[in-house]
């Protein structure tokens, strides 16, 4: 089985999942010290910590499979934007707290389905990371879904903000379910599901939550894409400029 | 001016089958969120397996001035403590 | 410390005390803990609210200088450690606000006083973190100074405050170590890294010494707090202890403390050192530190921007409760 795997595609795929965790973790961590209430500050930090931990595991495995002696840190800190493989959704700026929450919810609902499927990956290393991450992400989803419901069905202002957030994040959700050659190779090797196969379950979760939140389902919409093959929004460059500053300014230093 | 989230008292049962123990308090709009916040605030280091939350204003506390009458009588019931009884060494651990 | 300028009265002489006050003082002298709702002198309650409140504010404002570097931490592991640490500060703020709330003041009231400038936070957090070694220096020096004050406060007379300090001390044990660990890496690193480490020490040394508050000879107000055991050691005692602990640590790093007068004093068995510039301290406390505006501005913005979120959740909780009640009524 493992012998039949296209290594380059595997590395590419591992970077996709690892970069999603890295960039979303980065965005969430930007809230540290600035959240609307102390309890939320603490909860968000937990979430960012989970994501950074997951990114270390995925990128660590990517480096291992790649076999060129690189580390997770080198992948995180020494690739340029064009080499990053995360979804556009996760690199979008935080906006107000509603935007952040909606982005999180739409991603969590996808992330959990992906991880559930990965628990039966043909590659035991993938299955193991997925099993650990799934527990964390189940909690992320519980939280984000519940907060979307509460704020959608809260005050007129919170409803309006969540509606606006949904509208602006929605066009970035389609990319999660696009299949390409890398996905096909992974599915064929039994390593990962085809992204399109995750859509029905995601749709169910999202429809249920939006209905309970009294938010109108946006329906079919135009879909932005490009992150999975390295064509990003302008925002990622700034994320990396900040994140990679020390490693770039002082090459070779040990921290 | 917005209204403040109510205060909740948090009780956590640790890993080893002990009783729930009061660990502190926090604010939350309702019980469900109080449990979630408690998970994030008070179990950051794997401290617990079960969480109880109670609205702070639902707790009735013994009056401090009654401390004497409430607790001192039990001081006299020394037989409630195992060290009250001398068990011969030959009997073994009890 | 985190409550550098909490004013209380001079200790009341026994002959001026009421019988209640005498009984109260005797309880404290016996080492008993005072618990919420028990009788306490109004001055005790007020001083505690100010002190615990200032301490709590310091924790949450203290998230900001370190939070600055979370997105720029140089490795994934450093990022995770720093995030966990800053998260702990938020937790500590929360524990302390909770302790203050047992004295009959709400967290929102305390925050309102912080935001309006009527309550202070520690001067140290008005200094900027300019390079990565500052994150090391904050952990090593700032947390080191804080711990020095907090360890004795575990024995403070007010039960909820003492319990909060016990929890905080337990959790903080890794904070200072992670800071020193960063300093060790930097000091043993490239010449640029070592220069950053020295620069950080140069900038944080005196502000760290200021954390203990003005010299005992200038702060006559601590007598009452010490009698009440809400202050355990004097400012100068703690400052001396801190210097004695830190000098060899700096030496181990190969860094020099920016004080030409630093000298071992055999007689007192401790280091002689220069006082910080107290006019700078008072300027920072008065709002003229390098970052006062940013720090307080960031907290006020977070609070104001978050109002719709807090209100939305409260409104939902009330609606949901009303629906539950209506359902119960319908069922009956």
Automatic annotation (TrEMBL), chain A:
One of its GO terms (biological process) is phenylacetate catabolic process. It comes from the Bacteria. InterPro entries: Aromatic_CoA_ox/epox, Ferritin-like, Ferritin-like_SF, PaaA_PaaC, PaaC. Coiled coil: none annotated. GO terms for cellular component: cytosol. Gene3D superfamilies: 1.20.1260.10. This is Phenylacetate-CoA oxygenase subunit PaaI. It comes from Paenirhodobacter hankyongi.
From TrEMBL, chain B:
InterPro entries: PaaB, PaaB_sf. Pfam families: PaaB. This is 1,2-phenylacetyl-CoA epoxidase subunit B. It comes from Paenirhodobacter hankyongi.
UniProtKB/TrEMBL annotation, chain C:
GO terms for biological process: phenylacetate catabolic process. This is 1,2-phenylacetyl-CoA epoxidase subunit A. GO terms for cellular component: cytosol. It comes from the Bacteria. NCBIfam families: PA_CoA_Oxy1 (TIGR02156). GO terms for molecular function: phenylacetyl-CoA 1,2-epoxidase activity. InterPro entries: Aromatic_CoA_ox/epox, Ferritin-like, Ferritin-like_SF, PaaA, PaaA_PaaC. It comes from Paenirhodobacter hankyongi.
């Amino acid at each position: 089985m493992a012998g039949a795997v296209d290594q380059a595609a595997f590395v590419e795929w591992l970077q996709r999942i690892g970069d999603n965790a890295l960039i979303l973790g980065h965005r969430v961590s930007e809230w540290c010290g600035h959240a609307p209430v102390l309890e939320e500050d603490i909860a968000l930090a937990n979430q960012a910590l989970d994501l950074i931990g997951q990114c270390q595991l995925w990128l660590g495995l990517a480096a291992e499979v790649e076999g060129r002696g690189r580390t997770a840190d080198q992948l995180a800190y020494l690739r340029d934007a064009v080499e990053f493989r995360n979804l556009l959704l996760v690199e979008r700026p935080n906006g107000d707290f509603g935007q952040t929450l909606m982005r999180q919810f739409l991603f969590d609902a996808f992330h959990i389905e992906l991880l559930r499927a990965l628990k039966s990956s043909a590659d035991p290393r993938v299955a193991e990371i997925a099993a650990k991450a799934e527990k964390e992400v189940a909690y992320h989803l519980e939280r984000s879904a519940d907060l979307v419901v509460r704020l959608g069905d809260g005050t007129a202002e919170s409803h309006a903000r969540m509606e606006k957030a949904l509208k602006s994040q929605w066009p970035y959700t389609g990319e999660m379910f696009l299949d390409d050659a890398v996905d096909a190779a992974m599915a064929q090797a039994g390593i990962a599901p085809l992204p399109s196969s995750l859509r029905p379950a995601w749709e169910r979760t999202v429809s249920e939550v939006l209905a309970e939140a009294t938010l109108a389902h946006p329906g079919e919409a135009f879909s932005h894409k490009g992150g999975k093959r390295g064509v990003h929004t302008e925002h990622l460059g700034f994320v990396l400029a900040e994140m990679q500053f020390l490693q770039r300014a002082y090459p070779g230093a040990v921290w | 001016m917005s209204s403040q989230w109510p205060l909740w008292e948090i009780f956590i049962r640790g890993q080893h089958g002990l009783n729930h123990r009061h660990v502190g308090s926090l604010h939350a709009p309702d019980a469900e969120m109080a449990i979630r916040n408690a998970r994030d605030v008070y179990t950051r280091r794997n401290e617990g397996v079960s969480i109880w939350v109670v609205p702070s204003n639902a707790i009735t506390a013994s009056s401090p001035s009654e401390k004497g009458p409430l607790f001192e009588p039990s001081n006299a019931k020394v037989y409630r403590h195992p060290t009250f009884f001398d068990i011969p060494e030959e009997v073994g651990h009890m | 410390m985190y409550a550098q300028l909490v004013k209380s009265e001079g200790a009341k002489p026994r002959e001026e005390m009421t019988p209640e006050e005498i009984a109260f003082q005797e309880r404290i002298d016996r080492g008993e803990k005072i618990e919420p709702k028990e009788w306490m002198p109004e001055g005790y309650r007020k001083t505690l609210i100010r002190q615990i409140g200032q301490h709590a504010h310091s924790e949450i404002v203290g998230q900001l200088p370190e939070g600055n570097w979370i997105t720029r931490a140089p490795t994934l592991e450093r990022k995770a450690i720093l995030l966990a640490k800053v998260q702990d500060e938020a937790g500590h703020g929360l524990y302390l606000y909770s302790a203050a709330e047992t004295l009959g003041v709400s967290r929102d009231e305390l925050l309102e006083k912080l935001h309006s400038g009527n309550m202070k936070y520690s001067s140290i957090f008005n200094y900027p973190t300019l390079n990565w070694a500052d994150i090391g220096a904050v952990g090593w020096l700032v947390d080191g100074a804080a711990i020095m004050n907090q360890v004795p406060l575990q024995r403070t007379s007010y039960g909820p405050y003492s319990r909060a300090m016990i929890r905080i001390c337990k959790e903080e044990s890794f904070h200072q170590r992670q800071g020193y660990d960063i300093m060790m890496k930097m000091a043993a690193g490239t010449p640029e890294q070592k220069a950053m480490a020295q620069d950080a020490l140069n900038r944080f040394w005196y502000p760290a010494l200021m954390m203990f508050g003005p010299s005992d000879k200038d702060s006559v107000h601590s007598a009452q707090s010490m009698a009440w055991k809400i202050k355990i050691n004097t400012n100068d005692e703690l400052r001396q202890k801190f210097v004695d602990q830190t000098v060899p640590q700096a030496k181990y790093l190969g860094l020099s403390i920016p004080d030409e007068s630093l000298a071992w004093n055999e007689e007192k068995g401790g280091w002689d050192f220069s006082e910080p510039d107290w006019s700078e301290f008072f300027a920072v406390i008065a709002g003229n530190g390098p970052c006062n505006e940013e720090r307080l501005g960031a907290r006020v913005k977070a609070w104001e921007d978050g109002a719709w979120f807090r209100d939305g959740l409260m409104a939902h909780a009330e609606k949901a409760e009303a629906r539950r009640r209506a359902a119960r009524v319908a069922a009956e």
